[in-house]
Specification:
This protein is mainly alpha-helical. The protein is about 65% helix and about 0% strand.
């Protein structure tokens, strides 16, 4: 199977133009224009056929859509150790938020202790999208039943000049406020985040339907200048 040809068969030029506006860090010519549901269907078919190993080795890919497909194939992998190794190989080539955020390996749910150690490693990275991916995995897997208050220290320790890192930190803490208010609000009360991330966290939390009106009003009074 020529995977690049398969992607071009699914191309929509208007969608490519739309996607280019959402991913300003990418050159327009890097985007084929395949809708995510179509890429997801292709990823599942390729994984089911076992026809993905050569494709995963073809780094860097030429097109954004190939990177999206790569991330979605990784999300299907059943072997935890193989998946983590493949993620570690791919992360240095991730160069935009959309590819970073599409990766959500299902197998991670069954390996929480090992995953936590990898999350700490990813979040401590100076690479923008490796750090962002680590925080997203922390948000996805450790803010519910497996939550521990000390986990909030991991993203709170991050200091970055990168917009896509700081936006992820704000997204994480806004979600944490919705799910674990009592443990999280001291980070806002006590100014544990930089000013931009602090204020963005409050903005995103106040936009959330999971935050009560009373909580939103309280957060409004914590904005910093």
């Amino acid at each position: 199977m020529n995977i690049q040809n398969e992607l071009f068969k699914l191309q929509e030029i208007k969608y490519a133009e739309f996607q280019a506006k959402l991913t300003p860090t990418l050159a327009r010519e890097k985007i084929i224009g395949v809708r995510v549901p179509e890429v997801r269907r292709l990823a599942r078919a390729i994984y089911k056929e076992g026809a993905y190993e050569d494709f995963l080795k073809q780094l860097p890919h030429k097109y954004y859509d190939e990177d999206m497909l790569h991330g979605l194939i990784l999300s299907e992998m059943k072997d935890y150790d193989a998946c983590v190794a493949a993620v570690d190989t791919f992360l240095p080539y991730v160069n935009n938020w959309a590819v970073c955020d599409i990766m959500s390996p299902k197998v991670f749910k069954k390996h929480k202790p090992e995953l936590m150690e990898k999350i700490k490693e990813w979040v401590s990275s100076k690479e923008t999208y490796t750090c962002r991916f680590g925080m997203e995995m922390l948000m996805s897997h450790f803010l519910d039943d497996d939550f521990k208050p000390q986990y909030l220290k991991i993203p709170a320790a991050v200091r970055s000049e990168e917009y896509y890192v700081n936006m992820m930190t704000a997204w994480f803490f806004a979600t944490a406020l919705a799910k674990q208010w009592d443990a999280t609000i001291p980070y806002i009360d006590n100014n544990k985040l930089d000013v931009w991330t602090h204020n963005k966290t409050i903005q995103k939390a106040r936009e959330s339907y999971r935050i009560t009106d009373e909580q939103k009003e309280y957060l409004k009074g914590l904005k910093r200048k």
